[in-house]
Structure formats: structure tokens, C-alpha cells
Amino acid sequence: MPLPELPFTSRFCTARDGLRLHFRDYGSPEDLGLAVVCLPGLSRTSADFGPLASALSNGAAGGARRRVLALDYRGRGLSDYDPDWRNYSLPVENDDILTVLDAAGVEHAVVIGTSRGGLHAMLLSQTRPSLLAGVVLNDIGPALEPDGLARIRSYVGKFAPPASEAEAIDLLKQGMNRQFTSLGEADWRAYAGITFADEEGRFGLRYDPNLGKATEGANIEPPAEAAWAQFDRLGDAPLLTIRGGNSDLFSAKTQAEMARRHPGAEIYVVEGQGHPPLLIDADSIQWIADFVAEVESRTAA
Fold first, then answer.
1. What are the structural domains of the chain?
2. 19, 107, 115, 195 — which has fewest CB within 10 A?
3. Given pLDDT bands bounded at 50, 70 and 90, which one contains residue 21?
């Protein structure tokens, strides 16, 4: 059963090229806890992190209230769509992330990256390593499985958007029920709302359909050698890797290699879920909250 969500403030800033970028701001800059930055997947939005961001901002991690930012990349959620789909790329999006962080005044944080968001988290080890107090990589690593990449390319920007909650649930079940075997009806309903409902409750796509064009090339992933180098640059930063037990993109072999290269990394497997785990259940949220609290205790020591 998904956990409840708390209010947040929608904030906007301007990218280098003039596009308006949106992020959800939970908590307050006055909160004393270590900040958290949440980065969503390829076609996902800040809404994915509603229950998690609410819990973390409200004291789930060691009792401290903290500020939590959840971002919409360009072309997703409430951020402007880019007239040039070629800008839906890791370098451009990463620069946008830095712009949001500067606008929000966040200099040091735990970064939680789901899928593409995890690629951005690893890239930040190169573009702004001082940010990374700790890193959570949700069903992502430097090596990605071909079956998962093919599945993602097969649907992003390639289906008619659902016009109702029932259509949205059916669409998700058709594509995801083999991976997400543990979800109940309340979970599917929450998943559909997070994925397709806008701020007024209307159902449709929450991303620019032209994003599908960006998935047709190498744009969807960095070269493996570069990705491993970015991962290795995480150095001594505390690390939690999360894998969906049924994931077709992030293998147990890759997760084990990441742990070997990063001694002390925590490993969490969400059984009955695929790519990526939704992070809306109490167990997953508590695991991440405990990790954030541990990072904070190390930072304070």
C-alpha cells in the first residue's frame, strides 16, 4: 500500500538556453537535516517521489526534518518541452540539474537516482562531486541489459496516452505485470496516477512524445567504459544500490560488481518488482530513510 504524500511547493528556474525547469520542493531551507535530491527515470517525473520525499522531509530518516527536491527534466512533467529533441540528452539534462541545484541553493545532499536518474547521479561524480554526500542508485548501474533497453525503446513515445484511470491501469498492466508481480490493486492505481495524471487529475502523457526519438540512438545510455569510470569516481561516498528482483535492465551480476568496486555499499533487492522499483511502499522507503540517516551521521561526525 503506497504511503501518503505531504504538500510541496512547485518552483521554477531557467536553464541556460531559456527553457523553464520545474522541481518540487518539500520541506524548507531552514530544516536542519541533510538535503536530498531525487532524480527520476527517462520518461518519468517528480511525481514518482511523492511518498518518499514526503517521508524523508517529515523526519523518517533519524527524526530530522529535511529539504527534499524532486526534479522534472526538460520535456517532462511541468518543465518546458524542448523544440529540439536532441537536447533530451544526458549532458544537457545534467547541466539542467546543476542549474536547479544552484537556484535552490543546495550544495551537499544525498542523491537518489532512479534509472536514468542514477546515470545522472554517477555523472555528477564528474560534473559536481562536492554535491554527493551519499548516493542511492535505484535499478541502475554502469552496465545495462539489452532486453531492458529494447523494452524501453519499444514504448517511449510510441503509444496512445490513456484518457482515464481505468485505461491507465490497463496500459501499465499490459506492459509491466510480468515484472511487477507483487502489486495489489491499490498499488496499480497509485502507479497509474503517478505515471499519467496531471495536477488536475487529468490522464495523459507526462512527457514530450519526441523523447522517443532520443531513445533510438546511443543517447539513452553512456558508453560502458565511461559509465564505470563515473561510478568509480563515487569514491568513498556512501552508496545504496537497489534492484528490482524481476528487473530486465539491472542484473544481479552488475549489482555484485558494483559492490565489489565500492566496499561497504549497501544492497537492497525489492522482490516482486521489476524495472524500476516504485519506492512507494513502507519497506523501501524505510530502507532509504535509514540509509539517509546513516549518511547524515557520518557527515556530522
1. 9-144+223-300 (3.40.50.1820)
2. 107
3. very high
Which pLDDT tens digit goes with each residue over 124-164? 999 999 999 999 999 999 999 999 999 999 999 988 899 99
* pLDDT reading at 221 higher than 80: no
